[in-house]
Input
Amino acid sequence: MLREFSLDGQNALVTGGGRGIGRAIALTLAEAGANVAVAARTLSQLESVADEINALNRQSIALPADVTDPLSVQKMVAQAIDHFGEINILVNNAGVSGKVLALSESDTAWHTILGTNLSGPFYCCRAVAQHMIERGSGRVINISSVSGTIAAVGGLAYNSSKAALNMLTKVLAMEWAPYNVGVNAIGPGWFDTEMSHQSIETAEDKAALEGSIPLGRLTTLRDLGLLAVYLASPASSWMTGQIIYLDGGETAAFL
Output
């Protein structure tokens, strides 16, 4: 491995780390040398991922947490720092989806999605920032979506939350650049996860989806993990305030 991509001696905190994208990123960071704290609401899933990380001869800890609760976030960060001594990398992956229309009779879905996808990353960034600023270094990776730049009916809350997360990423990058804390985002396209699987359950669904992607195929979650390793490593030390879309070319016509 090129030394600039090594995460040896680094400690990461990954929210939504019990499954899907978060699990893939956590495991790939560990492969690159990082110790990884995984956080989410379901302890059993977290413990399973932590066991996989330990099997790679890296340290891991499972931290039950609710990113929509600032007090829960503060506790999560304190536990991670207490366990590892410091946090070098924060990955804000916890998120939810759901269809919301402007004329919906209930505001519950709107508040749930915005609270998890936007307020959650903000609370996590705020809780970790002072620690990183005092140390004079740190890397924050927010997991956004192509939905942050492509509009869709029913995406009122989800698309809005990801678009706002993109701007949060840029503003925090500007605010924390003087302290050598980099803030970037990854915008995944279509990946087969627990959240998206219902949209591609059949061969026909998959074929139609692949036909809409310029590269004509889906890829694996590991690709997201590899990009996260780059953004967490010294190799990206001069990159901040960027949203990188990993989508097979889906957003090329929009950006």
Observations:
- The radius of gyration is 17 Å.
- The longest strand covers residues 181-188.
- The chain has one domain: 3-244.
